């Protein structure tokens, strides 16, 4: 097993951070705003029918000014799976269902998957943040290897790391050298300790390290974006307003566009003929396309992405169409609440020297996963808003029939029977009158 622990110090100095280093341990004195990414790589039995599987669970977390740890994905649980060539669909979905339930504790049946060009995809909202739950978790399975990444803030003042048998551990303490860093060239300066069972060395012989990364995900200074729900009965409006002091402008950029990516739960309909916002072009839409089905007859949601001109200033208004909800006798005031996941708004730009993007040890792009990342080529970088008030899912009130589902069904069927009888009665009466009408006598 290999473990790489990267600690990002948000200050301008490491003074006082290294508390103690011994032959088999390192102790650091940190503050609550230190970010820690842990990357674990281990052998894992290869799946029979699954080529790749990726799961990322994201909560709303501040990743810092330079976005060194880039997990700018939708909040919630996103799962991507790709079958092996020639795999039977039935066997693939059976194995996928068992793997997710047994290993990850997530229950997803074959009818809930959305088919996208890169993989089958599932998304679900997360409930409110839970104590002890890691705000960022990214797990990837492929070719008999499992890679797990987590990001969290320091939970205690002292961090202790120990040498483990048959366990390669690399500990890095870094800060961003702002005197020589830019958005397209972030310089990390710091210290590294290595516990390697094959090549033991004295950890007190630390490695002073300075390296450059070309970030795939970047943050726009003096920018903000906020999304809110405008109540509108069965057609709530997702309204996103944004402001940016300066559009993306770095030395390595070629061309840029503004993009809007969202996932809709099964409670809402996206109509590509009516719901595309002003000045937007629909780039991608996958998921349930039947606009007539009620909510209780639908098993999957939909993902959508729009492209806007670079200089578009908004606001962006996406009008949703609520599916008819299952009648609920407990619905207060005749409404039920369903959740809307705030969209991701970002600029995507082509760059020069794109081969440097994947060389960053902190780059997260994979062949599958990453929400919107899969729709862009390898030479694309993304610019995010510094103050992005997206957060977790937002509750939307939807009108619903009051009463039990069975009662509404009986009333509906009763009304249908009564209406049918009325029509038949009218037809019979008309036929009867026609048959009683006297015929004129012939002379």
Automatic annotation (TrEMBL):
Transmembrane segments: 410-432
A single GO cellular-component term on record: glycosylphosphatidylinositol-mannosyltransferase I complex
Pathway field: Glycolipid biosynthesis; glycosylphosphatidylinositol-anchor biosynthesis
Keywords: Endoplasmic reticulum, Glycoprotein, GPI-anchor biosynthesis, Membrane, Transmembrane, Transmembrane helix
InterPro entries associated with the record: Pbn1 (IPR042322), PIG-X/PBN1 (IPR013233)
Molecular function in Gene Ontology: mannosyltransferase activity
GO biological process: GPI anchor biosynthetic process
Membrane disposition: Single-pass membrane protein; Single-pass type III membrane protein
Localization in the cell: Endoplasmic reticulum membrane
PANTHER family cross-referenced by the UniProt entry: PROTEIN PBN1
Role summary: Required for proper folding and/or the stability of a subset of proteins in the endoplasmic reticulum. Component of glycosylphosphatidylinositol-mannosyltransferase 1 which transfers the first of the 4 mannoses in the GPI-anchor precursors during GPI-anchor biosynthesis. Probably acts by stabilizing the mannosyltransferase GPI14.
Family note: Belongs to the PIGX family.
Protein name: Protein PBN1
Protein source organism: Diutina rugosa
Source lineage: Eukaryota, Fungi, Dikarya, Ascomycota, Saccharomycotina
């Amino acid at each position: 097993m290999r473990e790489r622990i990267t600690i990002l110090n948000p200050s301008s100095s490491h003074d006082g951070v290294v508390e103690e280093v011994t032959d088999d341990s390192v102790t650091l004195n940190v503050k609550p705003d230190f970010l820690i990414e842990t990357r674990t790589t281990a052998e894992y039995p290869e799946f029979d029918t699954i080529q790749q599987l990726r799961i990322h669970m994201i909560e709303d977390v501040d990743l810092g000014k330079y976005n060194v740890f880039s997990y700018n994905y939708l909040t919630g649980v996103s799962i991507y799976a790709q079958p092996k060539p020639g795999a039977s669909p039935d066997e693939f979905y059976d194995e996928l269902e068992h793997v997710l339930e047994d290993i990850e504790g997530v229950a997803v049946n074959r009818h809930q998957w959305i088919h996208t060009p890169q993989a089958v995809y599932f998304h679900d909202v997360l409930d409110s943040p839970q104590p002890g739950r890691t705000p960022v978790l990214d797990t990837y399975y492929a070719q008999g290897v499992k890679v797990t990444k987590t990001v969290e803030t320091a939970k205690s003042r002292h961090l202790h790391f120990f040498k483990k048998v048959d366990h390669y551990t690399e500990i890095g303490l870094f800060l961003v050298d702002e005197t020589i860093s830019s958005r397209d060239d972030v310089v990390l300066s710091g210290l590294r300790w290595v516990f390697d069972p094959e090549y033991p060395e004295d950890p007190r012989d630390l490695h002073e390290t300075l390296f450059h990364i070309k970030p795939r995900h970047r943050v726009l200074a003096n920018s903000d974006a906020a999304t809110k729900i405008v109540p509108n009965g069965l057609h709530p409006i997702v309204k996103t307003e944004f402001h940016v002091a300066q559009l993306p402008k770095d030395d390595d950029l070629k061309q840029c566009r503004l993009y809007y990516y969202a996932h809709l739960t099964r409670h809402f309909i996206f109509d590509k003929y009516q719901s595309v916002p002003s000045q937007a072009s629909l780039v991608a839409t996958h998921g349930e396309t039947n606009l007539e089905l009620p909510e209780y007859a639908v098993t999957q949601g939909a993902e959508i992405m729009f492209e806007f001109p670079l200089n578009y200033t908004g606001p962006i208004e996406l009008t949703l169409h609520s599916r008819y909800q299952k009648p609920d006798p407990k619905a207060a005031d005749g409404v039920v609440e369903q959740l809307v996941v705030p969209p991701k708004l970002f600029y995507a730009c082509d760059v020069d020297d794109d081969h440097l993007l994947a060389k960053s040890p902190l780059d997260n792009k994979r062949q599958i996963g990453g929400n919107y990342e899969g729709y862009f080529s390898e030479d694309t970088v993304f610019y995010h808003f510094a103050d992005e008030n997206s957060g977790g899912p937002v509750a939307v009130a939807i009108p619903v029939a009051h009463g039990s589902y069975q009662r509404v069904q009986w009333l509906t069927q009763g009304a249908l029977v009564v209406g049918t009888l009325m029509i038949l009665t009218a037809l019979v009466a008309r036929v009867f009158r026609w048959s009683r009408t006297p015929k004129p006598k012939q002379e």
